[in-house]
Amino acid sequence: MLKEEHEVAVLGGPQSSMLPRSTAIHIQSEASVPDHIVWSLFNTLFMNWCCLGFIAFAYSVKSRDRKMVGDLTGAQAYASTAKCLNIWALILGIIMTIGFILLLVFGSVMLYHVVSQILNNQRVHL
């Protein structure tokens, strides 16, 4: 008998005849309530016009606190308010940023024209 045949005889046949066993674990998760804390933090740091980002951050923290104690209804209410404030902070932030850029561009152009007009008037009088 060859060495391989002896090992097969000692160890037994291929184990493919055995049914594979699997274990399934079912975890029931509670309904997740997004608290929008990252969005609120972004708005607090970068788009904090009229302090809306900071107020949204406060509501996001309240939503997370309510979620930790198991009050999903309260967490959802605070999260909804935080989302609304974040949307308004983002919209106002974008509008104000675009307005500031336009004011800067048009102000620079106007300043250039005024300075060039003054220089032309001084050349004419000399």
From TrEMBL:
PANTHER family: INTERFERON INDUCIBLE TRANSMEMBRANE PROTEIN, INTERFERON-INDUCED TRANSMEMBRANE PROTEIN 1. This is Interferon induced transmembrane protein 1. GO terms for biological process: defense response to virus; host-mediated suppression of symbiont invasion; negative regulation of cell migration; negative regulation of cell population proliferation; negative regulation of viral genome replication; positive regulation of osteoblast differentiation; response to interferon-alpha; response to interferon-beta. Keywords: Membrane, Transmembrane, Transmembrane helix. Belongs to the CD225/Dispanin family. The lineage of its organism: Eukaryota, Metazoa, Chordata, Craniata, Vertebrata. The keyword RNA-binding does not apply. One of its GO terms (cellular component) is plasma membrane. It is found in: Membrane. The chain crosses the membrane at residues 37-59, 87-115. InterPro entries: CD225/Dispanin_fam, IFITM_antiviral_protein. The keyword Protein biosynthesis does not apply. Pfam families: CD225.
